[in-house]
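Late entry, written up from scratch paper. The run itself happened at the end of the previous shift, but nothing got recorded in the book at the time, so transcribing now.
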Amino acid sequence: MQQRFLEGDKVLWVLISLLALFSFFPIFSASSNLSYVIGTGTPWQYLLKHTFILITGFLLVLSIHKIPFYYFKGISILLLPIVILMLIYTISQGNMVDGVNASRWIKIPLIGISFQTSSLASLVLMIYIAYYLDKTKEEKINFRKSLLPLWTPIFLVFILVFPTNLSTALIFLFTVYLILIYGCYPIKYLLNLFLISSFLFTIFILLAIQYPEKAPDRLGTWINRVENYYNPSLSKDGNYQIERAKIAIASGGITGLGVGKSVMKNFLPQSSSDFIYAIIVEEYGLIGGIMVIIIYLLILFRITVILHHTSSVYGKLLIIGAGLPVIIQAFINIGVALNIFPVTGQTLPLLSSGGSAAWVTCIAFGIILSVSEERFNQGKIKQHKKVSNPLLIISEEK
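Output as recorded:
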């Protein structure tokens, strides 16, 4: 019984556990600044909150990875309208909570944690897209036929996330295209949609610049971040966090200043979330920063291994939809701290402080581990029928 307590890919279990355990050190260190900025609580209270989030997150992993992955087909159909309604409610709030635009979060009663509905909605939609592509894998795909069941929910989720969280919407859209390409959705349709959407986005930006009073509230933030990235001299304060992050990384050297000895955590407002990688490098040096990157690369490698060994078409698509956004988000966060990308607001999965982001990441890993268990339980399935879709080629058990 003990050997069956943790099922699925054991290496992936070890990697996500390492990230979670390591996160306690930079979170405790950076939260000293968080308690000072907000003016309430102590680092120990924030550490306890982080502990609660990770414990509940790993309970989610334990629960979800026990569910046979094909059950997620029905779950996604049931949850899709619910998460769309949640997005509508979230974006309709239009008020401020703790100085942050609450149109991106829902406050969870009693426990006082904000839940970012866009993360959950994106994951649910990825599961639904995997189900749709698996259902139509032997059919000739027609764009008109797929417009209502496939593109309508994609459009709804994107249009509801886009106004308040551009980076999440773009990561979501990029992953949608990847999973559709892998799922053999006709490239000509995807190319046409990309060209049309790019044209419409360009028109939207031009109109918003021309008529700023009618533009979304976040548009000015997007433009400022891009302008500050390419022309730092245009703003005195726009690159405040980036400059402090660069100082933190430069101060770390090879071995770092030591655990809890970060100086820049006192000057970085988002030191425990968006810029926690800079604090990690400052305290643990280049060695620590490289080790974090290696762990994320190893997670990507294990996801690829699980994908290769999965015999189910739906399982393959599920791994892409659940796993790739986590890796993309991680390297975008690291890229922002290294000044490779403009500021996006993306957190570092399992390392940054937060609530809903960590839970959704744990749900995604639970789904991947559920699929990985198929390698052991369903490896005897063989495919004899010839089909045109290359996804249906199933390797025989050695």
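The chain has one domain: 10-392.
(Scratch paper discarded after transcription.)
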